[in-house]
Specification:
It is built from eleven helices and no strands. By secondary structure, it is mostly helical. It has two domains: about 80 residues; about 230 residues, no CATH class. This is Stage II sporulation protein M.
Length: about 325
């Protein structure tokens, strides 16, 4: 093909690529691919032509645009976990504290009720589960429930269940926070009754070493999801100077950020329950190490680090 015909055939496309920005990354990538093909053709047949130089410059420009977008997406991902999410957590520490206090108080109340009413545990957990646990205890394997299922199947089932439960706790906040409080009530009562059942059988400390290997992250996720639900509900109850619909949008957005932040917690908790908790005879030092690591992570990332980051940002602003 003659250079003039090659130019006439493609010049409109090239000018479009040069002066009209791509609407999305996929379109930009497609433009870059076509330009590379045209550039390769030009270098083959017109190596010293101005058309070749023009295409080289245009392709380089689009390549830099792709690289810039990729770098911004990567930095946005890092910024979310390093800055955006922790500052959102700090903004709503009060709601998270309320969620923690409600859940803990109900768990303690449930344990107290179970200690004074022999039927309470069965009423909460159901006869079938209690009898299965008692049967496992009689067999000398009180935590056998964690060993009956395939590891992968158990991991997937628990991960989906954790996500479902936490999402329900969050979304229920739309009912002016009462829905989230109800789910915290329900889960807190179940935890208190469940934990007391093992203490009553003289298996308190062993149950902590086994169950809380995954329970530390799992229960923390439910409490944080409850806080996210309170954010959603309070945005309706207390819109402040904003329109209620605008306040709701902001509350939903901030609450959803917390839920996104819980995704790694869900996955790790499910992994621990599916793959680690089944080894109930693991060394105590290993169990305590996992417990301590999980607890310290939650304490650091959702409590201490957000406070520290907020103070640092406030200090920087005061200097500017």
């Amino acid at each position: 093909m003659r250079e003039g015909l090659f130019l006439k055939k493609n010049i409109d496309k090239w000018k479009q690529y040069q002066y009209e920005a791509a609407s999305n990354p996929d379109e930009m990538a497609q433009q870059f691919t076509e330009l590379v093909n045209d550039l390769g053709y030009a270098k083959t047949f017109y190596p010293h032509s101005k058309v070749t130089q023009y295409l080289n410059g245009l392709a380089s420009k689009i390549y830099l645009g792709i690289y810039k977008n990729k770098r911004e997406e990567t930095s946005r991902f890092v910024r979310f976990w390093k800055t955006e999410l922790p500052l959102t957590v700090r903004k709503y520490h009060r709601e998270l504290l309320y969620s923690f206090l409600i859940f803990t108080a109900l768990a303690v109340m449930a344990a107290f009720s179970a200690a004074h009413d022999e039927t309470f545990v069965r009423g909460v957990l159901g006869d079938r589960y209690v009898e299965m646990t008692e049967d496992n205890i009689a067999k000398g394997d009180p935590f056998g429930v964690y060993k009956d299922e395939n590891k992968i199947a158990m991991f997937l089932r628990i991960a989906l269940n954790n996500i479902q439960v936490s999402l329900l706790v969050f979304v229920a906040g739309i009912f002016v926070s009462i829905g989230s409080a109800w789910f915290l009530f329900k889960n807190g009562i179940m935890l208190g009754a469940f934990q007391y059942m093992f203490f009553a059988k003289g298996l308190g400390w062993p149950s902590v070493l086994v169950i809380w290997v995954h329970g530390t992250l799992e229960i923390s996720a439910i409490i944080i999801a409850g806080g996210a639900g309170f954010i959603l509900g309070n945005s309706i109850l207390f819109p402040g100077t904003r329109k209620r619909i605008d306040s709701l949008k902001r509350g939903a957005k901030d609450g959803l950020k917390l839920m996104i932040g819980l995704v790694p917690v869900f996955i790790v908790a499910a992994f621990l329950e599916g793959y680690v908790t089944r080894y109930s005879a693991m060394p105590q030092w290993l169990s305590i190490s996992i417990l301590a690591l999980s607890f310290n992570f939650i304490l650091w990332y959702f409590v201490l680090y957000p406070i520290r980051l907020e103070k640092k940002n406030r200090h920087i602003k005061s200097l500017s």
